[in-house]
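dumping this here before i forget
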Amino acid sequence: MFSAERNGTSVTISDIARELGVSKSTVSRVINCKGRIGESTRQRVQDCVRNHDYRPNTIARSLAQKRTYNIAVVIPRDADRGDVPFFQNCLVGISEVIYSRGFDAILAVDEGDETGALRRLVSNRKVDGVVLLRLTENDAAVEFLEQEKIPFVAMGTSDDAGVVQVDNDQVSGCMEMTDFMIKRGCFHMALLGGDGTLPVNGRRYEGFKQACEKNNISLNESHCWWNLDSESDINRALPEIMRENPQCLVCADDVVCSRVLKWLSANGYEVPADIQVISFYDSPVLESHDPPVTALCVSAFEMSRCAGNLVLDLIEGKKVSRRHSVGYEIKIRESFR
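structure:
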């Protein structure tokens, strides 16, 4: 037994090297999978590491390699609401990837121009890279990270060609979905969404608009309701919307859709008998609703895993392409006839 184990302290590389009669650099190269080591020596070191449950000193490794082995994951302030599963799924996907590659996640909660949490982490050299889970118009976080020259990846689509970004084709997906509705005889629609300045909502609206233009449907801007950011906003808007007798309520995302469905149920409307409902973003809540809601399905888990791998590749100095896109699928369910 090592003296370290007898004294209740951690086993070190020096302990392993001394027991095996090899150099500390040999043990280090085996542990870090670097350099050319004979197979028999490699096996002896690996067996010894396993038998003594050796765990690297993260602080020492960080100092030696000038890394923190931490990734900042920046989430918007409204991600703490229980009805926003997108961000929860993203955190799971990113965490799985970075943990498997020896890094840890540190959360930073910011919103819009408020980037204090992110700035502290970066300025204090507590992270090696950053993943932004939401982009905003003229994003202050992007500007700051570009100035700091720290590796980062954004989930969403940015017009800044220098930003490494992961998204799906929001415009094509929403256009295809709207075109499907129109071809099924749905011509009178109301579009309901949250923050109209968010790029993701702008791209969803663009797809909706393109489908209307393609089918020679005049898009009345008064039928597009934005900035419905709370349940009370939805409750105030829907009475006026329903007086126009729309055939379908088109929700920009799953949160808006969930609130719309709640109002409809409380006010005696049956879906789809009285009003049809679709969403430009799917979630388990919409899938399990009675009736299940027709929605555009994009895997937040797949997007976030891609983002996690990309930021680690950037940290390791690998070349990556700037734009990455995941697929989408239109889930036709019972809320739309």
